[in-house]
Design a protein that fits this description.
This protein folds into 2 domains: about 130 residues, NAD(P)-binding Rossmann-like Domain (Rossmann fold, 3-Layer(aba) Sandwich), CATH 3.40.50; about 170 residues, Dihydrodipicolinate Reductase, domain 2 (2-Layer Sandwich). About 40% of the residues lie in helices and about 30% in strands. The protein is built from 9 helices and 15 strands. The strands form 2 sheets. A 9-stranded mixed β-sheet has the order 14-13-12-11-7-10-9-8-15. The protein has a 6-stranded parallel β-sheet with strand order 3-2-1-4-5-6, sandwiched between helices. The longest helix is centred in the middle third of the chain and has 19 residues. The protein is globular, with a radius of gyration of 19 Å.
């Protein structure tokens, strides 16, 4: 079977992981786009060592699109370039999976982010291209419910949601809006998956953006009813990272491990009970490819959902106190 041709815009950071997961999901990574000839040479070496990359590196996006004709483009460039790069790929005929957040540009007003986000989603719809965003924690949902049912039995209506990430940043600690914009899309995507069709009741919001800590509390109102949501983010200077989330007081921890073949996988734990799965970013990418191929997969955070995610982020930024 002919492999799907994939290109990655920005493959020196998180894009390197995207490239490897596309490769392991059966696609052919034919190219990537970097910022200079020197950076492309370094990234090409890293990708060859990671999974045997045999494609080409470019430092001109238009040239890459014209020469390589990728069927899928992973947009992993800096967030203020997401609209420009996603629309260029869509116009060239590619399906697009964009890193989170959908848009973030500290030089612009948050309402301008929404304009950029809507332009991306609307262009994909007009061109009939598959479009999605990659806050991979959305793909936790079926495994979380499996763990929930293993311990508690039958599911109950979602009346409370708790998500807490305490992370150590690799490139310096994140502060204030940067922490919120970078990390919250994961937990918002999971909330939208566990309590679908909802939106924040802005009149119930309480929260603050502190230097290295964000807290947002609000009611999430969905067709299933009202849910008291709490999202707590901390950028650690020291101490062990914590990633946990759940509903109705059943809060599971998320960790990862490498299997016998060296492939990274995920594990959810609650006490002595656990559920293991493929890495959640791997799941998101593999399912996106299946959708593009018409094989039935799904887009975990599709265009409209990615826009609701961004809108909720902006609502919090506009409501939160700065401490």
């Amino acid at each position: 079977m002919k492999k799907t041709r994939v290109a990655v815009i920005g493959a020196s950071g998180i894009g390197q992981h995207h490239a490897r997961w596309y490769h392991l999901s059966g696609a052919e990574v034919v190219a990537f786009v970097g910022t200079s000839e020197a950076s492309c040479a370094k990234t090409a070496d890293a990708l060859r060592n990671s999974f045997g990359f045999a494609g080409r590196g470019y430092w001109d996006l238009d040239e890459m699109l014209k020469r390589e004709h990728p069927e899928v483009v992973a947009v992993c460039s800096p967030t203020h370039l997401h609209r420009e790069h996603a629309v260029a790929a869509l116009e060239a005929g590619a399906h697009v999976l964009c890193e989170k957040p959908l848009v973030w540009d500290p030089a612009k007003d948050p309402q301008a982010w929404l304009v950029d986000g809507r332009a991306m989603v609307e262009r994909a719809s007009t061109l009939r291209r598959v479009f999605g965003m990659t806050p991979q924690v959305a793909a936790v949902a079926p495994f979380y419910w499996q763990l929930y049912e293993k311990v508690r039995g039958r599911r109950a209506p979602v009346r409370a949601f708790h998500g807490e990430f305490r992370n150590k940043s690799r490139k310096g600690r994140k502060r204030y809006e940067e922490l919120w914009c970078d990390v919250s899309p994961h937990l918002l995507a999971l909330l939208m998956e566990l309590a679908p069709g909802g939106e924040m009741d802005t009149g119930t919001f309480k929260g603050r953006l502190s230097e290295y800590e964000n807290l947002a509390e609000f009611d999430w109102v969905s067709p299933a009813g009202r849910c008291a949501a709490r999202i707590h983010l901390v950028d650690l200077e020291e101490g062990a990272p914590v990633r946990c989330f759940g509903v109705n007081g059943f809060v599971a921890g998320w960790d990862g491990y490498r299997d016998e073949g060296g492939i990274f996988r995920s594990v959810l734990k609650y006490g002595d009970a656990e559920v293991r799965s493929d890495d959640f970013l791997h799941i998101v990418i593999a399912d996106f490819l299946s959708c593009v191929r018409g094989e039935g997969g799904r887009v975990w955070v599709d265009g409209p959902t990615s826009l609701r995610n961004l809108e909720t982020q902006v609502q919090v930024l506009e409501k939160a106190e700065r401490a």
